[in-house]
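Quick one:
INPUT:
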């Protein structure tokens, strides 16, 4: 019945359905990236945050006669809920007419320099006609204007003309500039939103990639133990390290349409990768092994797209939808009135979905309460959980 209802909603209310889905998983970047890709395949336009139309969360709107999903202001990293509420409260009196009107109406104590910078990088102020480069390079002017406007409002509170906008508004003079290149804009969006909105570094290669029988990063946990697979993506970062034996190896962050995976390369494969054009998509043929604690990805071959197309014909990746369940991950939590630990715990487990169930043991003076949680996680969460106070991994 639930499957029928959700299928019906997705068919007849696609924007609203996908917006609700994205909001429900907003703390899980991997799932958000996956659903964004699905929305794009459904031909649903996803708009960057908009200072005049975005709510706190994802929303389905009609803009310029086009239905779309709009990113929420709360999705921007570095923009706290207090800042968003302050912006929405100011906007309740009417949309911001231009950048000067926005700067004069915000509270600089809540919407500070860092918040403004993050909103600019995410594209939230694009509607005012200035390039993101222009706003970022003149951000000190924006901040100072906001402070002067706030100060004038306070001084005018007891004035006869206190409500007069002409008395409290501060003139803002900005010089427009040529925009950053697309790569820089996408990097800003990845930094502030955790994913790309204006496009994707692999968009120009999607048709070519779709002709190859490859595996998405979101399917790693369902690959049968010992099976081979081909992953294709953009190499985002290479971190070089030294082993205890003194040999060099590298940790490669590979980004595809559904997220990121990390693969380890020994010196010979690392040298091979560094000789390739890293501005182009790279294909990795790997062997996947699952253990009780983690999933090991061993790279056997590094290829270009044309080489991967030929190699993929020889690779048969076995996908297992229902892998054998693992023993529950037991967490001991000391009972406290402080909800901060619970909030951090919830955010962490939602960020690392997987196959392993969580058993929560709440310790109090009277008795221990055991909760069999329905949330399932990947073992990658264990390292981060060990850093939480009042939480013990058993």
């Amino acid at each position: 019945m639930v499957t029928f209802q959700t299928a019906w909603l997705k068919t007849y209310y696609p924007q609203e359905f996908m917006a609700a889905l994205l909001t429900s998983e907003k703390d899980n970047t991997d799932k958000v990236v996956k659903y964004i890709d699905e929305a794009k395949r459904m031909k649903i336009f996803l708009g960057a945050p908009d200072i005049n139309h975005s709510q706190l969360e994802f929303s389905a709107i009609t803009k310029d006669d086009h239905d779309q999903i709009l990113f929420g202001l709360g999705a921007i990293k570095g923009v706290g809920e207090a800042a968003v509420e302050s912006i929405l409260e100011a906007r309740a009196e009417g949309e911001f007419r231009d950048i000067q009107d926005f700067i004069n109406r915000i509270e600089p104590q809540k919407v500070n320099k860092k918040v403004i910078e993050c909103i600019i990088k995410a594209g939230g102020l694009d509607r005012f006609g200035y390039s993101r480069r222009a706003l970022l390079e003149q951000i000190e002017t924006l901040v100072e204007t906001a402070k002067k406007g706030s100060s004038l409002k306070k001084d005018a509170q007891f004035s006869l003309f206190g409500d007069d906008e002409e008395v409290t508004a501060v003139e803002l003079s900005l010089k427009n500039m040529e925009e950053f290149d697309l790569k820089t804009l996408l990097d800003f969006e990845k930094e502030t939103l955790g994913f790309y909105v204006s496009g994707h570094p692999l968009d120009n290669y999607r048709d070519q990639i779709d002709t190859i029988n490859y595996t998405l990063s979101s399917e790693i946990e369902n690959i049968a133990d010992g099976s081979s697979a081909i992953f294709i993506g953009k190499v985002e970062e290479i971190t070089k390290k030294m082993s205890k034996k003194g040999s060099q190896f590298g940790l490669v962050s590979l980004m595809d349409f559904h997220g990121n995976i990390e693969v380890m390369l020994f010196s010979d494969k690392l040298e091979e990768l560094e000789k390739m054009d890293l501005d182009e998509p790279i294909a990795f043929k790997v062997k996947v092994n699952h253990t009780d604690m983690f999933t090991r990805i061993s790279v056997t071959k590094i290829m270009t797209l044309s080489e991967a197309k030929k190699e993929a014909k020889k690779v048969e990746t076995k996908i297992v939808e229902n892998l054998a369940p693992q023993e529950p991950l037991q967490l001991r939590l000391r009972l406290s009135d402080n909800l901060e630990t619970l909030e951090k715990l919830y955010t962490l487990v939602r960020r690392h979905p997987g196959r392993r169930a969580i058993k929560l043991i709440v310790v109090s003076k009277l008795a221990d309460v055991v909760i069999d949680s329905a949330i399932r996680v990947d073992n990658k969460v264990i390292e981060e959980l060990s850093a939480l106070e009042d939480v013990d991994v058993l």
